[in-house]
Amino acid sequence: MTEIPQFGVRKDIDIDLEKENLVSSSSNVNRKIAFQTSQVSSLVNSSSSSSSTNQFFNRLLINIQVVIFGTKINTLLPFGPLAIVLHYFSNRNGLVFLFSLIGIAPLAERLGYATEQLAFYTGPTVGGLLNATFGNATEMIISICALNNGMIRVVQQSLLGSILSNMLLVLGCAFFSGGIVHKNQVFNKAASVANLGLLLMAVMGLTFPAVLYYTHSEIHFGKSELSLSRFSSCVMLVAYVSHLFFTLKSHKDLHNPDNIESTILHKESGDADKETSNEDEEVLITRWESIIWLGVLTIFISALSGLIVNTIEEASVSTNIPVSFISVVLLPIVGNAAEHASAIMFAVKNKLDITLGVAIGSSTQISMFLIPLSVVVGWIIGKPMDLNFQLFETVTLFITVLIVAFMLQEGTSNYFKGLVLIMCYLIVSASFFVHVDPTGNH
Amino acid sequence: MGSAGENIVLELEEDDLIESTPVIGKIRNFQISRVPSSSIAIASLSSSSSFSLRRASKAIFSSVNTVVFKAKMNVLIPFGPLAIFLHYLTGKHGWVFFFSLIGITPLAERLGYATEQLAFYTGPTVGGLLNATFGNATEMIISIYALKSGMIRVVQQSLLGSILSNMLLVLGCAFFSGGIMHYKKDQFFNKAGVAVNSGLLLMAVMGIMFPAVLHSTHSEVQYGNPELSLSRFSSCIMLVAYASYLVFQLKSHRSLYNPIDEDVEHDSDGTEEEEAPLITQWEAIIWLSLLTILVSILSGFLVDAIQGASESMNMPVAFISVILLPIVGNAAEHASAIMFAIKDKLDITLGVAIGSSTQISMFVIPFCVVVGWIMGEPMDLNFQLFETATLFITVLVVAFMLQDGTANYFKGLMLILCYLIVAASFFLHVDPDDN
């Protein structure tokens, strides 16, 4: 390939992309981009003079090309700035909400991509830690923005919705698509059972404050469950940290050969990807570049989250949809769009362990890490965020975890299980469509 | 006589703090029926002289030696009399409560030991029955006392706390310690027996849940005392279920409970499984009755001091009944479960922990309801919504964790952390009607 301009490269990338559709962080795309881009960059580097500004511009162009133009989902990028413009120049907050929601999807995806790229440089353990902490960075940022605004119910409901969507919708779609393509699929039970155990413990941590409150059996009415929530959150964080320790250090080989645990933590890293050949995926951007992109994307996501949080109530009023529905169903669908697509893709490729890693691992991370973290952050900034998710939400979570645990416990999947999970999600969303908090929003 | 004494000392050194656990006869090899060496010595003594007085005193001396002085836990025995003193001399209920609590621990442990010794003589089946009935004798005695004083909530909460502590704390500590010792791989245990126990536990949860749900949905019939009648009926059914479980376990399906043989065969070589009984049959029975009387006395003081202790220590009665009482009552089982897990004999550990929970939920609780029926106390299975929900969630979590037949330190850690959450909830819990 002798054409130097990047447009030639982009054509190749487009052709390859047509095979992959919306899925951006797939290893195939990366590999092909890597191949062409490294050729281009070597060509560019060799042909240019060694002046540093030239190099800087070249790196900048390569970066922008790789990160921004590298996937199709980024066509949704303009919605972000559009939302900001609309917010300052008009009063149509419903539209602002919708546009910022759409604008966050590609940013969330790119954030995951940048995290992965950074993970290449830091080795498997720290990489795993990175993925474990920032895997759900979007939800974390939205929650902290909402917490700052004192919208505790939105935080609780959006985190709950993220768990539900991961466990029911993402898993259901993946099982369904995989089951249509391959008749019966098997996966490694051990890792998913460990994660489900953690999820059950999270349910326990969430249930006790709610039950304490609703049986009117606490010592200082209204305050006891806050202290209990804070204590339980610390306990849950300890459990999560030991879970990380357990999977990253001591029982690394436990779940071979499909290595689901390290897959959860290294997303689509090389050792899980066996069909497609020699896998040392190229990193496409340098370490500092990925850190910079992480920072930039975080800032953008925070800006859009701020908009979302500010306009959610007006959007609910203008579209006549309850805030619960928006927080539980709409927000997570958008925030998880990229994970959703990649989970389906891996199921279709018969790599169900990676799918389970993505879906269940993400649920575990939210329930055992993000939720207690928000309680602790609330404690620090003085907001009364607690684990009492109100009776309806708690019961929903409990039943969902039970159903999913039961479905997963035998280690096989087919399209019918996927269909059942999707139907359950429809029932859940319908319930939230007609749900308001009994005493009004906090 | 001297050599017999040495024999006793040698054999006892293996025992130390750990009582031979009051397991429901699953693991112990009840085919052993060797005559203890002390009685051989005593018999030989008696054959040479006919001083019955000397023989009796020697027998008493060796018995006391075996039972009282050879267990390290028995240093705590003086706390018992101290508690009684304090009760009569001062009004410090907090101290009385604590001291009687600490004083009961060694007695409970020795009670289990005496039961075990007696079981050697009675053959496997009756031995299993003995263990099954008296394995939780301490809890039973405390409950009956509390029932007599009309403290129904204390009975319910202490039995619930015993189940919770067995399933979460004891099991968690055992898995954790065993997992740390056998660091690199998982430990295995026999799933089938645990599955039966989980099924029974879930049945117990069902039996406890229906009266509570009936009451809290205000959907019971309005005449008579419906929850009480329902509770009494369910208790009889649960007792029948427990009896059939004993038949299942001890007679017809014994093979189901064979432990997983990893590298070690425990039933046939000369490790601690082949214990000779150390006291004669009659001695065992006498000790059994003696210890029961002592435990009853201390329980009386314990129960009377609960209310006062709660006020003086500023802790809810719920916390004391659910958390403190069982931790102490189960201390010996706790220690032995950990020891067996470290020795990679997880089946025994599970027998102790889950078996004890099953026994309490399917035997002691319904038994208390029936005893209350006889005494005329309105003890029922309506444990109030919070406690019932706690039990339900705990049984589900533990059943799920145990269903794959493996254990590692992380599972143990999770169980312990769950117990912390439960304990914290009870620290902040009072009954809504201000009981």
From TrEMBL, chain A:
Membrane topology of the entry: Multi-pass membrane protein
Coiled-coil blocks: none
GO biological process, one term: calcium ion transmembrane transport
Domain Sodium/calcium exchanger membrane region: 95-248, 290-430
Gene3D superfamilies: NCX, central ion-binding region
Gene Ontology MF: a single term: calcium:proton antiporter activity
Transmembrane region(s): 159-181, 193-215, 227-246, 291-312, 324-348, 355-381, 387-408, 415-436
Lineage top rank: taxon: Eukaryota
Subcellular location: Vacuole membrane
Protein keywords: Antiport, Calcium, Calcium transport, Ion transport, Membrane, Transmembrane, Transmembrane helix, Transport, Vacuole
Cellular-component GO terms for this entry: plant-type vacuole membrane
Pfam (any one): Na_Ca_ex
Function: Vacuolar cation/proton exchanger (CAX). Translocates Ca(2+) and other metal ions into vacuoles using the proton gradient formed by H(+)-ATPase and H(+)-pyrophosphatase.
Family: Belongs to the Ca(2+):cation antiporter (CaCA) (TC 2.A.19) family. Cation/proton exchanger (CAX) subfamily.
Protein name, as recorded: Vacuolar cation/proton exchanger
Native organism taxonomy: Eukaryota, Viridiplantae, Streptophyta, Embryophyta, Tracheophyta
TrEMBL record, chain B:
Family: Belongs to the Ca(2+):cation antiporter (CaCA) (TC 2.A.19) family. Cation/proton exchanger (CAX) subfamily.
Location of this chain's protein in the cell: Vacuole membrane
Alphabetical UniProt keywords: Antiport, Calcium, Calcium transport, Ion transport, Membrane, Transmembrane, Transmembrane helix, Transport, Vacuole
Any GO molecular function: calcium:proton antiporter activity
Protein name (record): Vacuolar cation/proton exchanger
Membrane-spanning ranges: 71-89, 159-180, 192-210, 230-248, 284-306, 318-342, 349-375, 381-402, 409-430
Residue ranges the record marks as coiled coil: none
Residue ranges of every copy of the Sodium/calcium exchanger membrane region domain listed in the record: 95-250, 285-426
Cellular-component GO terms for this entry: plant-type vacuole membrane
Subcellular location, principal: membrane
GO BP terms, alphabetized: calcium ion transmembrane transport; intracellular calcium ion homeostasis
Task of the protein: Vacuolar cation/proton exchanger (CAX). Translocates Ca(2+) and other metal ions into vacuoles using the proton gradient formed by H(+)-ATPase and H(+)-pyrophosphatase.
PANTHER family per UniProt: VACUOLAR CALCIUM ION TRANSPORTER
Membrane topology label: Multi-pass membrane protein
